[in-house]
């Protein structure tokens, strides 16, 4: 039915679904902070697992729906394009945090470890794409490895957050989240958790609508799957990460902001796992093109630059932001130019 709508109605529904995702994510951000405080989960872990997974749900639906429909490039480019876009959002947030470089102020060992895990998880699809075309029941063995690696990474991230073997140097610009009085550990968590779950379901429904409209753009207007996936649906479904990052920075929850992006990107690698399962024409890794691989490399490069910035902890850089933010903007800009003019 969605495929039969006129262009104005398609665009209107697309905007409505995107706005719904954004509105739900704003409320989800505040609830994630409350849940983190009341359960002693910690901001970095809450941002990486709880908030990152929730705001990524609409993107999961888009990729899985595309893969089930047989469009491997759309599914993969939506996943890896979203990772690149969300990493860019940290650079944008750095512009808003005027006191010091965001990566300096949000020093947190768990975020460093999650960035390393993200690089590991992004390297596995590259190996699958470059390796032999093998699949069992249509699923590549790398998908299983990625899923198990993600679960192990979450467990190890929790351990790093609770019992870090080293701590960053404290400076006057370092910021730590302090629980509000009504969010003290031990306070009731059931009600905010239920509201959070309802918002997650709402974002998943909006993701399905976005996936249907994205597929319509590809078939009706002859757009490439990688362009629609990486620059349209990926950006729209990534808007929650932009909003939650900005809201978290304004609230002073800097570890939550950085952890939400890195952890969300880590969760987004599972898009490829779920898409591989949904894609029934063999391994999805062997069905994608070089443009999709380029976006995957872009995500890896931007993550490596971010990790370097978190370690360097530069207080001031060009235009009062960290040098890593400048580089991430440049890398993403080049990737967009390649997609538009050379793809």
TrEMBL record:
State a single Pfam family of this protein: Na_Ca_ex
* One annotated Gene Ontology cellular component of this protein: membrane
Instruction: Name the chain's protein.
Output: Cation:H+ antiporter
Membrane topology category: Multi-pass membrane protein
> Which InterPro entries does this chain map to?
NaCa_Exmemb (IPR004837), NCX_ion-bd_dom_sf (IPR044880)
Gene Ontology biological process terms from the UniProt entry:
transmembrane transport
Principal location class: membrane
Q: Which UniProt keywords apply?
A: Membrane, Transmembrane, Transmembrane helix
- In the UniProt record, does the keyword Membrane occur? yes
Asked whether the UniProt record includes Transmembrane among its keywords, one would answer yes
Ranges for domain Sodium/calcium exchanger membrane region: 10-124, 193-338
Mark the transmembrane ranges.
79-97, 109-128, 134-153, 193-211, 217-240, 252-273, 293-312, 321-342
Subcellular localization(s) per the UniProt record: Membrane
